[in-house]
Amino acid sequence: MTMNRERSEQHYNEALEHIVGGVNSPSRSFKAVGGGAPVFMEKAEGAYFWDVDGNKYIDYLAAYGPIILGHAHPHVTKAITKAAQNGTLYGTPTELENQFAKKLKQAIPSMDKVRFVNSGTEAVMTTIRVARAFTGRRKIIKFAGCYHGHSDLVLVAAGSGPSTLGIPDSAGITTNIASEVITVPFNDIDALKQALDHWGDDVAAVMIEPIVGNFGMVTPEVGFLEKLCLYTRQAGALVIYDEVISAFRFHYGAAQNYKLFPDHKAIEPDLTALGKIIGGGLPIGAYGGKKEVMDQVAPLGPAYQAGTMAGNPASISAGIACLEVLEEPGTYQHLFDMADTLTEGIKEAAEHNNIALTVNQIGGAFSTHFCNHEIKNYEDAQNTDSELFSQFFKLMLNEGINLAPSKYEAWFLTTAHQLKDIQETIHAVRDTFSKMKR
Ligand code: PMP
Which cofactors are required for activity (predicted)? Predict the structure, then answer.
């Protein structure tokens, strides 16, 4: 049976007249899954969504990551309400910012100092500026398929070889800017070494998601980050970790402090960009790093960065409240347990229906790829069946399961998901797989 989503369609048609593309972020459109009206949600609570037509969904999008406690978590809602009652924006410093900065530094010790901004994009963009100010160099090296927000420098695609400069990934980005970016394949230490050998004197920073969340969930191979840090520093460049997705996702701390990497000191970055979870569902970003590097930032140093909304009491209060819940014992274990049960169920259902599926799970997050090869880099993730994914996505939506409309995005568990939700989801997956046309 197909769900009735008449009102969503009406709202979408209206949106198309007033909002470019009908959406305020392209990832919300259904373009990548063959088109159609995206679902207009009306209410969210815990693990659930209700759309404008009254349909209920179990949500695994978690707003692309931030909603790790589920929707409208009472502790976060209370903190936001209190902040709103005390005035939402001051334009002056507040003590809350100190509290939150201290909390983040305790969890991520590579950051001696932090600065709050409003989005992951801003955080990443600024780390690049700071790295350039510190090193006096121009170029950055990034990894194919890692998404770092929509600022000019990081929207540059791979060139045709490891030592080739990038080409713009978006109209409006000049070839001059693209010539400052080098893209190499993830998990390919030789390609990085070659790029550093070739461009090293001019490289300000190497930027990476230490655990990838943007072409599925992908971990670096053993020793990759250690070598990345070593070679980058030998070249006189800085290491920047984009932990906008990965921080507080797998444990109480960033990926750089996670148990996957026992030698934390050897993989410590100079700068870290944060966002998503640390805002508890309100807009936020932050960046931080070694004191001597961060001291480049105005008003102390010559690298300028500012923000009217930065450090606003509502976002900071929501962030503190979210971290307070995440800190409680057992929180991450619950996410892991739910994800384990769900991925087991999905794998069994795929096997039963003879569907080639690779599942990459890291703690409470995982990705599903329609293929029978491993996913170690962006190319692996591209070489998967987009058509099957589109069918899967749309059939699952009809079963009341809300996923991201892109084969590259992860499923995120929240503390609100309970075993009955997982069982219901496995049931939906079984039904969906049996209906898929190959
Ligand atoms: N970095 C990473 C790793 C991300 O996943 C994202 C967003 N998906 C960003 C940066 C950009 O964050 P924002 O959308 O808050 O600007």
Answer: pyridoxal 5'-phosphate
pLDDT value for 165: 62
Q: Per-residue pLDDT for 169 more than 60?
A: yes
Query: What's 174's domain CATH number?
Result: 3.40.640.10
Of 9, 40, 8, 10, nearest to 24 by C-alpha is: 40
Residues 149 and 218 in one domain: yes
51 alpha carbon – ligand 1 mean position (Å): 25
- 345, 426 in Cβ contact below 8 A? yes
Helix (H) or strand (E) holding 115: strand 113-117
Same domain flag for 182 and 284: yes
- Report field, pTM of the whole predicted structure over 0.80: yes
Instruction: Please tell me which residue in 242, 270, 380, 421 is annotated as part of the active site.
Output: 242
* Residue among 139, 142, 193, 276 flagged as catalytic: 276
State the residue range of the domain holding 102. Answer: 74-327
Q: How far apart are CA 267 and CA 229, in angstroms?
A: 6
ipTM computed for the complex: 0.99
282: CA distance to ligand 1 center in Å?
14
Residues with Cβ within 6 A of ligand 1?
Answer: 64, 119-121, 124, 147-149, 209, 213-214, 242, 244-245, 275
Does 181 fall in a domain? yes
Quick: pLDDT tens for 36-88: 999 999 999 999 999 999 999 999 999 999 999 999 999 999 999 999 999 99
pLDDT for res 98: 98
- Residue 276 annotated to the active site: yes
Decide if 396 is inside a domain. Answer: yes
**CA geometry: angle 414, 150, 147, nearest 5 deg:** 55
